[in-house]
Amino acid sequence: MYNKKLVDNLTTGQSKLLSSRRRESYDLYENLTKSDFKRIKLFDYQFPEYSPYNKEYLKEKKWQQELLIKKMTDNLNNEEEIINYLEQFKDKKVEKGNQGLDPKYLAMAEAFYNTGLFIKAPKNVELKVPVEIFYELDQENPVLIDNNLIVAEENSKLTIVIDYRMQDQNLTAFHNGLTRVIVKENAVLNIVKVQRFNDQSDNFDSNISLVSNQGELNWIPIELGAKNSVTNNENTLMDDGSRASISSVYFADGERKMDLGFKMNHQGRHSSSEIESKGVLKDRAQKIFRGDLYFQKGAGQSKGSEREEVLLLDKTVDSDSIPALFSEEDNVEGEHAVSAGQIDEQRLFYLMSRGMTKAEAKQLMVEASFNPIFDKIPLNDLKGSVINDVKTRIRS
């Protein structure tokens, strides 16, 4: 299945250096043991049979003239540039921890990816409209392994929206993704990721970033789907004044299980980070939230914060939160807060006394929690679709 013969087939027609990197990743993959995700009771997970991904996923717009965009599976004429960017993640300074949700899954994504993009915003380019990427799974394309590299060069500004979705509610599908991000000096990069797979599918997603001097990276991950969803978001604030934020929404109902990991690794002085996560659990859903703030030696006068608020719509849900703070510096500020609770009965009664049904009142309370983050989705059609999805599932 996932063997050397498959890697050899995948390198046919691909750039020489990227083909070599595939083979190196396969060697690593072969020697790694897959981890279990014990807190959501996901043991001995077996990857499904490989299949290619043939759908078109990049929505073409005028911005393609301003950006450099290449499909990672093609025979590229700039592969040396791509390899040089990827080598930055091997720097000993940032090697520790840059393993995504699990080293085996990371190596699998680099060895067997069937799609993915290299996107670069050149120096001083400021894009006014978002880049739109739609990875959709269907009967002909049930396996998605995307390997993405996004670079914002000096003084550039860019927003990228990636929508992972499917229409078939009975399809058994699989996603294992890897997105690496580099934000250079004074650049601003916003990345919105929306995941809306059905409850027969499995989702694994690793996101790793390096942020340079005065650079800014803002993540908006919206986790709404999959039977099992394991995600990791790991950011290294390498230089002075670097900034990163994560504004996350998750909604789990039925028997869904979510393992959400967020990490901010401060290395530069005066660096700042913020993790904000808002969630809702319903029925028998399970969720584990891990939020880590690291202040390494040399990251003096840096600030980091993490907050999670989760609304428990039923007593049968399982919610676990593990915030952590580690510091090798004295002169830093780190704070974390977790709030988990049932619906406010007095508020619910008040809304129902104004003529709302119980379901409508719950829906309004969830919307009030989620809307500040939903408002960061720059595409109105996508935002409306996401809101309607949440409304429907609250009422069901």
UniProtKB/TrEMBL annotation:
Coiled coil: none annotated. InterPro entries: Fe-S_cluster_assembly_SufBD, SUF_FeS_clus_asmbl_SufBD_core, SUF_FeS_clus_asmbl_SufBD_sf, SUF_FeS_clus_asmbl_SufD. Residues 138-368 form the SUF system FeS cluster assembly SufBD core domain. Pfam families: SUFBD_core (PF01458). SUPFAM superfamilies: Stabilizer of iron transporter SufD (SSF101960). One of its GO terms (biological process) is iron-sulfur cluster assembly. Belongs to the iron-sulfur cluster assembly SufBD family. This is Iron-regulated ABC transporter permease protein SufD. It comes from Halanaerobium saccharolyticum. The lineage of its organism: Bacteria, Bacillati, Bacillota, Clostridia, Halanaerobiales.
